[in-house]
Write a structure and sequence with these properties.
globular; alpha/beta; Rossmann fold; 279 residues; four-stranded parallel β-sheet; 11 helices; 2 domains; Hypothetical Protein Tm841, Chain: A,domain 3; six-stranded mixed β-sheet
């Protein structure tokens, strides 16, 4: 009997880690009008950004339906495996609830469904951690306990390059978008109790990065000896700046690098960078 980790594309587990640790990733769906694409399967990120730039309205997304989790869970149970399912924040998608419904229908005590209370690679790091614990022979019940504790310790920091897509999504006004563009304002966003929250803003990407690290220091957190995740929305130069600053300030244990998938990139737009760690 093994412990299998299942997650969804809101959590942006890098493909290399999903393959290495045998993590199954369930795809949400992105809708551009009448066109539907399974995130990470039916559309490349280059194709996604091309469509996003041309779209008058933001694409919409739909959750993984319960039947898909039901099938995935049954496949693992039939193999004699237990399942740890870690999903993107329940406050941003119904995918977590789909997984819960599937678990309830199977009425199995071998399935553990966890709300990551986060999105993109910070949530994905929880799935990677769970898979590594499973590889060490830790029981599913003990993995669940550890990951639920990690949920409360995980810190999320997103630096958004353009306000255009936040405006399209109705999160900021047109006047704020125009003013922010003129002043080169970069919002700094975190996740608090499963929801996005603006915590600061700065002029220019370099200042936004240093301001974010100042916030971390002010809160008494440290990344010394920690596993840190970093990812971006087609912004390799911005991510390089972030990583250079990170390694100059802290002797981190490991850096997990990745890209932001279509579901989250819908609202972030191109040019964003983010990083994550357990405090």
């Amino acid at each position: 009997m093994a412990v299998r980790i299942i997650t969804d594309t809101m959590c942006d587990v890098p493909k290399v880690y999903a393959e290495k640790h045998n993590i199954r990733v369930m795809s949400l769906t992105v809708h551009f009008g009448e066109e539907c694409f399974r995130d990470g399967i039916d559309i490349t990120m280059d194709e996604f950004y091309s469509k996003l730039e041309k779209a008058e309205n933001l694409p919409t997304t739909s959750q993984v339906p319960p039947i898909e989790f039901l099938d995935a869970f049954k496949q693992e149970l039939d193999k004699g495996n237990e399942v740890i399912c870690i999903n993107g924040s329940s406050k941003m998608s119904g995918t977590y609830n789909s997984a819960v419904l599937a678990k309830e229908q199977l009425n199995s005590n071998k399935i553990f469904v966890i709300d990551s209370e986060g999105v993109t690679l910070g949530a994905g790091m929880l799935a990677i951690k769970a898979a590594r614990l499973a590889e060490e022979g830790v029981s599913a019940a003990d993995i669940e306990t550890e990951i639920r504790n990690s949920v409360k310790r995980m810190k999320y920091f997103y630096i958004v390059d353009t306000l255009k897509y936040l405006h399209k999504g109705g999160r900021i006004s047109l006047s704020a978008t125009v003013l922010g563009s003129i002043l080169n304002i970069k919002p700094i966003i975190t996740i608090n109790d499963g929801s996005l929250e603006l915590i600061d803003k700065a002029r220019g990407i370099k200042k936004a990065i240093t301001s974010t690290f100042d916030l971390i220091q002010d809160n008494g957190w440290s990344m010394e000896g920690k596993v840190v995740g970093i990812n971006h929305t087609i912004a390799p130069e911005n991510m390089k700046l972030l990583e250079e600053y990170l390694v100059s300030q802290y002797n981190v244990k490991e850096v997990i690098r990745g890209d932001v998938g279509a579901v989250v990139a819908t609202h972030a737009g191109p040019g964003a960078v983010a990083f994550y760690f357990e405090a």
